[in-house]
Design goal:
- It is a single chain.
- This protein has 325 residues and is mainly alpha-helical.
- It has a single domain, classed as Orthogonal Bundle (ABC transporter involved in vitamin B12 uptake, BtuC).
- 70% of the residues lie in helices and 1% in strands.
- It has 13 helices and two strands; from the N terminus they run H-H-H-H-H-H-H-H-H-H-H-H-E-E-H.
- The protein has helices at residues 2-34, 42-60, 63-87, 92-115, 138-144, 148-156, 161-179, 181-191, 193-198, 203-227, 241-251, 256-275, 289-307, and strands at residues 280-281, 285-286.
- The chain has a two-stranded antiparallel ribbon.
- Strand 1 (280-281) and strand 2 (285-286) form a beta hairpin.
């Protein structure tokens, strides 16, 4: 029983690590889509940010400079999306997919040109990464306080700063959206933009501001992948996490806290899948590792296709706004 409890605790610890980029990206999607902009490009922005973060961190030796560069690139990609679908009223889904395709090819081409390692960056030294932070007295508490001490050491302590920032982003997103004038206007522009326009507030400006915030959050998701949980950039390292975050956002009905729960659910599935590979189960025997790793993606399709088909998105989402004269 004690061993099961410890393994379960380690799975929860892995859940936080796996869910971190999903949380950042889901919060990014909430900002963007609450303003009426469909953001399929979460995946592409994360991928660009992951590459730039690793490349700049390797060149400068500083993960912070890499993070800043990654955020700038992610915001620029978001502004490109905004230029296409806000200024020129282009199809938002096609624009987002174009950014994803661009990111997929561009990161590999630039990676080969810079490092000649098949699109990867060199392995980052520890000094160029966001490393785990051990909280004070973690080992002492674990040795002297039953149960809670182990929880403190294994589950709470040992995470890097981006994990805590991701969790904080949920509260910040909730506060901005539901407790500030800016959040009220942002939600209004996604529901009834003509009402906001009639009040003298620029719909385009509000949507661009939402896109910039989404770019910052996607940038942090990419930074986490390549300079915190990873030690460099690998081709297609986002592996569909942007789409899973999009599913979590929809599953959470475009609200921060339910979206967090969905991200943690996906993270838990992936963490458990990684831990039970090769394990023997009664009656059914060993489960294929490929099947286990595919579970989060299968769940994404099932949820989107069935259980959340009736969820109502913001009413003006995907609709270009044409100012009335």
């Amino acid at each position: 029983m004690a061993d099961f409890w410890f393994q379960f605790l380690l799975a929860l610890d892995s859940t936080l690590r796996v869910a971190t980029p999903l949380i950042f990206a889901a919060m990014a999607g909430i900002f963007s889509e609450r303003s009426g902009i469909i953001d399929i490009s979460l995946e592409g922005k994360m991928l660009m940010a992951a590459f730039v973060a690793a490349a700049v961190a390797y060149g400068t030796g500083s993960p912070w400079i890499g993070a800043l560069a990654a955020i700038i690139v992610s915001v620029l990609a978001g502004l490109l999306h905004g230029f296409a679908c806000i200024i020129h009223r282009g199809n938002q889904v096609i624009s987002g997919l174009a950014i994803n395709i661009l990111a997929s090819g561009l990161t590999v081409i630039i990676g080969i040109a810079l490092f000649r390692q098949g699109g990867q960056t060199p392995t980052l030294p520890k000094s160029a990464r966001f490393n785990s932070i051990e909280l004070p007295f973690a080992q002492y508490v674990a040795d002297n306080i039953p149960v809670l001490g182990v929880v403190y050491k294994e589950l709470i302590s040992g995470h890097n700063i981006l994990v805590w920032l991701a969790l904080a982003s949920v509260g910040i997103t909730y506060y901005i959206l539901f407790k500030t004038t800016f959040g009220l206007r942002l939600r209004a522009v996604g529901e009834k933009p003509e009402a906001l326009d009639s009040a003298g507030i620029s719909v385009s400006k509000m949507r661009f501001q939402a896109i910039i915030i989404a770019g910052i959050l996607c940038g942090l998701a990419g930074v986490y992948l390549s300079t915190a949980t990873g030690a460099g950039f690998v081709k297609e390292m986002t592996a569909g996490k942007g789409y899973i975050a999009l599913a979590a956002m929809i599953f959470g009905k475009w609200r921060p806290v339910p979206a967090l729960y969905a991200c943690l659910m996906f993270g838990f599935l992936e963490a458990v899948a990684a831990r039970v590979q090769g394990a023997e189960f009664p009656i059914i025997g060993e489960i294929s590792s490929d099947l286990l790793l595919a579970l989060p993606y299968v769940l994404t399709v099932v949820l989107l296709a069935g259980f959340i088909g009736g969820v109502s998105p913001p009413r003006a989402i995907g609709q270009p706004y044409i100012k009335e004269r």
